[in-house]
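Long-time lurker, finally posting.

We've been working with DUF2231 domain-containing protein (Actinophytocola gossypii) and I want a structural starting point before designing mutants. I don't trust myself to interpret raw outputs, so I'm hoping someone here can both generate the structure tokens and explain anything notable. Sequence follows.
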Amino acid sequence: MRNVLRKAESVTAVDGPARAVADTARRVVLGSRAGNLLRGSWLGHPVHPLLVTLPIGAWTSGLVLDLTGRRNAARQLVAVGLAATPPTVLAGLADFADLDTRQRRVGLLHASANLVAAGAFLCSYRCRLRGRHRAGTVWSTLGLLAIGAGGALGGHLAYAQGAGVGRWEGAGR
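Top reply, 14 upvotes:
Generated this for you. Predicted structure of DUF2231 domain-containing protein:
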């Protein structure tokens, strides 16, 4: 698995889109009050890793509730995860602006896997609204598989590549 994650650093095909996303994030987010809030300057470290716990926790718990027959509660948790996704994505984009080329490659693949996951959970929610609970459970399962891939890439970005580490080292001293 480690080799697969390291290979993500070499996927040059994503350099153009990754650069465009980083440039847009820099223009829109950096330097604004919202950007500082999203980047975690007030906390001393990135906010994105904290925010991801809400959609992941909600979606994982939703699947557990599916397995125990609590369909309504599972649907509600899928909705909570979907509602928590936009601020989580915005915080990730704020961090993306500071990444170097190799980190952006992994970051864009991380974001792409998580976009697939969010799409799967949106399909899950829609199925559940139509009374198609079994299909909703299948979509949730697929979403969690995509979240797992995205999480592995995010972990590689943070821990192996050190994205965001020391960003505020010495700040406020």
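Before you design anything, note these points.
The chain has a mean pLDDT of 92.
Helices lie at 2-8, 15-28, 33-39, 48-51, 53-67, 71-96, 101-129, 133-160.
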